[in-house]
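Retro notes, item 3 of 5
We never archived the inputs for the magnesium ion complex last cycle. Fixing that now. Sequence and ligand:
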Amino acid sequence: MEKLVYFFAKGQAEGSASMKDLLGGKGANLAEMTAIGIPVPPGFTISTRACNLYFERKRQMPEGLEGQVAKSLERLEKVQGKRFGDVADPLLVSVRSGAKFSMPGMMDTILNLGLNDRAVEGLARISGDRRFALDSYRRFIQMYSGVVLEVPKHDFERMIEAAKRARRVTDDTGLREKDLEKLVVQFKAHVKKVTGKPFPQDPTAQLWGAVAAVFRSWDNDRARLYRRQYGIPDDLGTAVNVQCMVFGNLGDDCATGVAFTRNPATGENAFFGEYLPNAQGEDVVAGIRTPLPISRVQAGGAGNDALEARHPSCYAQLLEIRDTLETHYKDMQDIEFTIERGTLYMLQTRTGKRTGLAALHIAFDFKEAGVIDTKTLLSRVDADMLVQLLAPIFDPKEKERARRDGRGLGKGLPAGPGAASGAIAFTAERAVEMAARGKAVLLVRSETSPEDLAGMVAAVGILTSRGGMTSHAAVVARGMGKPCVVGAETLRVDVDKRRLIASGRTLREGDPVSIDGSTGEVIAGGLEPHPSEIQQILVEKTLKPERSRLYGRYAQLMRWADDERRLKVRTNADTPHDAQVARAFGAQGIGLCRTEHMFFAEDRIAAVREMILADDLAGRTRALAKLLPMQRKDFIGIFQAMRGLPVTIRLLDPPLHEFLPTTPEQFRRLARQMRVPVARLQERAEQLHETNPMLGHRGCRLGITYPEVYEMQARAIFEAAAKCRASKVDVLPEIMIPLVGTVREFTDLAARIRAMGDVVFAKSKAPVAYLVGTMIEVPRACLCAGPIAKEAEFFSFGTNDLTQMTYGFSRDDIGKFLPVYLEERILAVDPFQSVDPDGVGRLVRLAVEEGRAARRDLKVGICGEHGGDPASVEFFHRCGLDYVSCSPYRVPVARLAAAHAALRERGGQGSQTA
Ligand code: PEP
Ligand code: MG
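Structure as it came back at the time:
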């Protein structure tokens, strides 16, 4: 019979940390902690395999599971000396989910399972505290009914609120034994009314109800949304952990808390955590009561409330465990613990989520302490996290001015670094709506819950008035890399009236507000975010590298990444400024210069429109003559910025109508300029109208029909190259023809380009070596890659168009149906964001293979948006491409992602999703 249940107790465990696939992260680590002698309440883990069998069997428990669970319960009873279902001294358990990757707040937990009307009295006698026993029972009914029986959680909250009003208290702890007794009766009556059945009294039935609910919660909307957000596969399943209860709410010698072995926001090597005295499990994580700091240092001042002061011996033990865990796991851990009547129990350890800043510092600190090597260090920083290091900050002077102007609203905890400024939305729904209308939105809540996830995704930053550094808002925002301030207690958030009151000010929905997620400050009004330290050093050059420790480590990380990677990283840049920025970030050339972007500038657009609307060749030639010197100047600037590095310039690509005047005033102005009647221009514009412009008169088709346009561009490139060469600037131009689908399209245009090269270089008498190649973005080009490669000197995959044409999804209209596709799991991710390996990817592989067979030294790159997406970078690495090209700010991300890809290919480490 297949083993589906793994037991752990008193220094012995059937599982281990390496069994995350089977036991989930929580279960594997509970086993590991038990085995290395850390005090963990005994229990057992039902494997993810059992969860998958449950779904395979159409939500029926797998065969043999019942027997294995019964046996494990027996073992547990023996270890604890108590019986499950015993009414005199009941064994109580917690039931928690635990998938391979931690999914904060996504799954449900049930505590105190095993209680019923009779056992509650047993617990009262044994604990000597009837109030506690009743409180445990009402919590259990509440959790169980919410999670398993699907009674709205809100109903119970309302009854508790009413009880508190009647007793004239604000805290749950103000409720007396009699009140709780009444609540238990009310709760049970309510469950009966809603479900039609009495609240289950049989502990075994309770347990199976809970196990099934945990399995089902793998498939709930929130869990699915989270998995989609972080690229976690849907078929992993969750494990279920059943563990003996320990109580943090048995009096003032009890507590429960969560901690990070190092600061998860800054990476500082200091124990960092929060706890609640006399509280149970979820209270800290839920962010409902603002918890107390764990250490005196963290508390600042005397810190008499700190755990260190109140429970000195447990604190000392925790510090030892902190060291043991860090040494054992060789990484920063996120732990949960409970103190029951002075005895410490560890409930969880896992790799702690951290900001990009913390990831960098922690990895370097571990390396410098000799705990990890360079390759492991590289794997500890997710490529996407680098974006946070480049994230903007507020100008301290502007912030100071805002404070002096009385715009300071208060200070919360700096939960997610970075500066954000946006219009207030008080609910997740409004945040989504406002963001969809293109507004930068700041989600402001008293606290967040998993229901707010979509709003958090849509917002530029998150602000809450309650909760600590480990509250839902803080953990999720850090995971997303969003600026976040939590627990700003001086703020009053009134969601019903849609207002925020603080420092005598009232702010309403839509009003601008700013948060500094690195300091915790909240400021009324918009503040402009400014460049980060790294940007100040590399781009603005306003800060000296030696003044920034962060930069020093960043630069070292990048050097090590460069040592590992094989893929080159270029950038998509259309201006000398962008080229310079990208070069500062380490770009090894330009992979795509979209020449049409130069045409939109104020001084060009008129000439471009004139060219498009001209009736004949003579008219077009006149307009092109105006554009030539401007383009030449652009290219000189770019060549200078990229001296010594290759620059791929794409000839005109988009449908012409994109340049046309749209308003009557624009038509009138252009008509005056061109000295033609307005009506004629309008008529010409109508002629240019296309039903399906993305598949219409664009790309090389323009070059074929109006060769003079490409000839002008080629001339501008060659003349610019010749000029640079004359002034000793090393130039390596690569001229790229877009949207090629047939060999003839390429050969006809390449011939014209090369002829132009001959003319220009004959005149300049100093030829410059150049390449003529093509974009591969039409599926036919992939299928005919061999013959095309015989003619083209390089390929660059335009995966935006290639994705569009492979799926037949319009790039511009996918927003209308993509959300449903993702929701229904027809697609796992947006294929325009992360390359589709099976379809589009297959075409890429085919084209690389046949292209290189036809021309051995064919240079191959990719310049679609996917060039900055770590998963896609890994795919292109495996396809054997020479380079990826991405936007300037993604260049560091692509460099690190390329290193991860190379490390993983060699069987070493490499960062992974989630
Ligand atoms: C592409 O299609 O991938 C590409 C880079 O070109 P554009 O986005 O300009 O169409
Ligand atoms: Mg394209």
